[in-house]
Design brief:
8-stranded mixed β-sheet, 30% strand, Aminopeptidase, 5 helices, alpha+beta
C-alpha cells in the first residue's frame, strides 16, 4: 500500500469565499461522516448511490475509507474554519489502470456552490498525473446537475446500453 500522498493536499476557495481544505481521504476520517451524512438529503444520497441508503454504518464506512492509494484516490473537502466535511470525490482505477471511475457527493446545502466542480477538476488532474487514459462514470439520467457539469468539463455522455435510467460519461485524458 502506498504512503499517504500529502502532495495532493490543496487549499481552495468557493466562489462565495468559503475556504476549503481538500486532502486525500484517510481511514481515521470516519467520525467526520455522521454530521456529513446528516447534511445530505435522502434524494442526494440516492442520486450518488443509485438507490436509498438506509444507514452509513461502520462496516459501510470502513469499505469507503479503506483506500489503496495505488489503485484508488478519494479527496475529502473540509471547511477550513470548522473542520466539517463538505464533500468527497473518488476515483477508482480499473484492473488495467487504463481508466478510473469517479463518484462525487457534496453536502446538500452546498450544491451549486462550485465545490463539486472543483473536486471533479482535482480528480481530472489526478487521473492525468496517474497516466489514466480516461475517467468514466455512471450517472442517473435524472441527475441533471451532474450531467451538466460533466458536459461542461468535456465528458462524452451516452445512454447506457444495459440500463435506460443510466448514462455513461467519459472524459478522454489522452488519445486512444
Amino acid at each position: 500500500m502506498a504512503a499517504y500522498p500529502q502532495e495532493w493536499e490543496r487549499h481552495l476557495a468557493l466562489p462565495d469565499g468559503t475556504a476549503v481544505f481538500v486532502r486525500p481521504l484517510r481511514a481515521d476520517d470516519e467520525p467526520l461522516y455522521a454530521p456529513f451524512v446528516a447534511a445530505v438529503s435522502a434524494e442526494d444520497a440516492r442520486l450518488r448511490f443509485f438507490g436509498p441508503v438506509k444507514e452509513f454504518d461502520h462496516a459501510f464506512l470502513s469499505r469507503l475509507l479503506a483506500l489503496n492509494y495505488v489503485t484508488a484516490m478519494a479527496f475529502i473537502a473540509l471547511d477550513e474554519a470548522t473542520g466539517a466535511m463538505l464533500g468527497v470525490a473518488r476515483l477508482h482505477n480499473n484492473a488495467t489502470n487504463e481508466t478510473g471511475e469517479f463518484a462525487i457527493i457534496v453536502r446538500s446545502d452546498l450544491k451549486s456552490h462550485g465545490l463539486g466542480w472543483q473536486l471533479m477538476q482535482l480528480l481530472i488532474a489526478y487521473g492525468r498525473w496517474r497516466g489514466l487514459g480516461a475517467i468514466t462514470g455512471l450517472v442517473l439520467r435524472e441527475n441533471a446537475a451532474m450531467l451538466k457539469m460533466c458536459a461542461e468539463l468535456g465528458f462524452a455522455i451516452d445512454a447506457n446500453p444495459r440500463d435506460p435510467s443510466l448514462c455513461d460519461v467519459r472524459l478522454q485524458l489522452r488519445p486512444d
